[in-house]
Amino acid sequence: MLKTRNLGFWAAGLAWAGSLAWFALSAGGCPREARLDKGPGAGDSESWYGLYLGTDKIGHSVTISRSLPGGGRAISNRSLMRFQMMGHPQEVASALSYDLDRDYALKRFDFRLSGAADIKVRGEVRGRKLLVDVETGGRTQRQEVGLSGPVTLPEAMEPLLAGRSLKPGDRHVFSIFDPSSLSLQPATITVAGRESLALPGRTEWSVRLETEFAGVTSQVWVDTLGRILREEGPLGIVLLAEPRERALDVKGSERPLDLLTSLSVPALGRRFEDPRGASSAAYRLLDIEPAGFDLDGGRQRLGNGVLAVTREPVPGRVQGPVPDSLRVWLSATALIQSDDPAVRALADSICAGMSDPWLKSTAISDWVFGSLEKKMSVTLPSAVEVLASRRGDCNEHATLFCALARAAGVPARLCLGVVFMEGRFYYHAWNAVWCGEWIELDPAFGQSPADAARVRLVSGDLSSQTRLLPAMGRLKIEVVESR
Question: Do residues 461 and 365 both lie within one domain?
Answer without folding.
Answer: yes
